[in-house]
Amino acid sequence: MRAAEPTVESAPWAEFVPSVLSDHGTECCAMARAWYTAMDRSMWRGEGGPAWISRKFPWGPSKWPLFWCEAMEAEELDCGAHQALSMEAFRARGIRVVPVQLVQRQEVHHLPHWHGRWGDASASPAWAREGVAYHEACATLQEGRAEVWDPTVGAWLSPRHLEGVRSIAAVRIGGATASDEFVDWRGVRLRMGVWASLEAGGG
């Protein structure tokens, strides 16, 4: 397995930046953040990722910009909001964490359903294309190693998931700013801030 040059699969979302929740700077968002922090602290058992987030806020359309007070009142949140909340949870635990952007392979027949659902909620369906979808996650970093947490499914991801639904076609760890730092994600060496396509059969 190896990291290869970016392919056209990453191109539609190449300029996207990781989602960040907005803050009104007033009591509404302060109370929402305080509630979230207390909730996460009560749910954490000392290890693992914050899987409770997607159970409390199932995956669905979000309209952006999204404020903290709105997110905590939402019945559903998209993967960008899940990512932002998971980042907050890991930081509160003293863990270095960065955003992760993915392009995942999907079933073609999902596209009309997703466009209809997001359209009905007046949310942008730009993340979904025929057979592929843009997705957001986050990565914990320690001593040059990365572990990628998918907050929408509540599980750690593997770069060896290269075939089938939700398999990974491309990944960018660390947001849109390229750096000289490299991380090892379960045997795949990636430069922070740079899109890379993952291909089966590499070394």
List the helices and strands and how they pair.
Elements: E1 2-4, H1 27-43, H2 52-56, H3 68-73, H4 79-92, E2 97-105, H5 110-120, E3 128-129, E4 132-142, E5 145-150, E6 155-157, E7 168-173, E8 182-185, E9 188-191, E10 196-199
Antiparallel strand pairs: 1-10, 2-4, 2-7, 3-4, 4-5, 5-6, 7-10, 8-9
Structure notes:
With 203 residues, this protein is an alpha+beta fold. The chain has five helices and ten strands, in the order βααααβαββββββββ. The chain has helices spanning 27-43, 52-56, 68-73, 79-92, 110-120, and strands at residues 2-4, 97-105, 128-129, 132-142, 145-150, 155-157, 168-173, 182-185, 188-191, 196-199. Strands 1, 2, 3, 4, 5, 6, 7 and 10 form an eight-stranded antiparallel β-sheet that branches. The chain has a two-stranded antiparallel ribbon with strand order 8-9. A hairpin with a 2-residue loop joins strand 8 and strand 9. It is globular and about 50 Å long. The N and C termini lie close together (4 Å). Mean pLDDT is 91; it is low at 2-6.
